[in-house]
């Protein structure tokens, strides 16, 4: 299964110290997983390939919680966390449920109380649950795909450290690698070549942005783009590209998705 959840936190300090560094938020979420499943946390940390987990930066929450948990102080923040396996989601949910409220969640030097974990669309528009199989079943052979990149997005490719443009081949090779590493429903590796040959960027509204990692920053692009397929692209390939684009919401795009980069939504979703 594929899960997107939103963890709401309340800062214990009136003005928490800088906590938007990608590795700090990832380390905090990994510590939560470790509370419930130390072996899984270790495996996630040591995985060289696609990780079944993405973590957003720490964002300030601009609205009050409908559940009444907001005490009016307004010092709420949230982290979007996606899990691409039942095991990863179960560990996260169990840790939040069983977390000792007297113990703060540390993000860098700042301390936070856990408020809630939203797991359904009625609780948060960023929360959802589906499966790889459902993404394939729901895909239609449309030649157009719209994507919005919410946090700096970049690729590692052919010795180039940062590719900061959504080249279709890089986009869909990124999604395909995650799909085939984590899904029981494998897709043909040849789709990467098909994407490079038959997909093109029809329009875009992008800008560069930086994400702080402490001793360095990573450049990436944010904004939106529309990907189109050339006429004559087989319907089977179009459906696969649609499913892969839907996966982007859960898997992110490009490099360092576990540390806040590459947060992605489909336009219209």
Major β-sheet, in short?
A: 7 strands, antiparallel
Tell me, briefly, the overall form: globular
Q: Give the uncertain stretches in residue-range form.
A: 64-73
CATH class of the largest domain: Alpha Beta
* CATH fold description of the largest domain: Alpha-Beta Plaits
Broad structural category: alpha+beta
How many beta strands in the DSSP annotation?
13
CATH architecture of the largest domain: 2-Layer Sandwich
| Radius of gyration, whole Å | 19 Å
Mean pLDDT: 91
Strand content: 25-35%
| N-to-C SSE string, H for helix and E for strand | EHHEEEHEEEHEEEHHEEHE
Helix content, binned percent: 25-40%
What is the number of helical segments per DSSP (H or I, 4+ residues)? Answer: 7
Number of domains: 2
